[in-house]
Amino acid sequence: MDMAGIGRTVLKAIPVSTLMVLVLRDMRGFVRICLTGALFCSVCGDILLDLPFANIFIFGLVAFLVAHLFYTVLFLRYAKRPERFGKVMIAGLVLSAGVMIWIFRGIAPGLYGPVVLYIVVIVTMSIGALLVPAKNNGLFWGALIFIASDVVLAFNKFLMAVPYGRVINISLYFIAQFMIIMAARAIWSDTHEAAVRK
What's this model's pTM, rounded to 2 decimal places? Predict the structure, then answer.
């Protein structure tokens, strides 16, 4: 890697690293562990996907897969039973997962399994985000934008060149991470304070 490539990779990792500092400063307990784990794995994924080495994509995919698992475990722990709107949204997410799995069926066999697993995990994470009680849907919207970011990345890598795909992917990714962390701080900071008052 030349200096320009190293600088680009470092700059790419800074925004999510900054969010991790906020989590470490403001959150406590199980929430802190899960959010920190998700953001740390995301930073690792940011770096791995930027390295100019052959066959490194799978390691970046695994890093983000683990990040989504941290988010999923956290969201499902606090999830409530869905109401009618939630059930409709869940059905739509499951259908979308099936469509994505079908669309990417033609990629390299060695990557198809991990990609399918990744799709299942990120959609499950989004369902968990939907079911977390909150004053607004910021957590869920962040999860949906994360899916959109990953879809752009996957299309760009496996199917077709998306105009400005890299810029769109990175922009959506940063927005998604920011929305998820800001929504999580609003939800669980309030929960923590309420628990302390009791």
Answer: 0.88
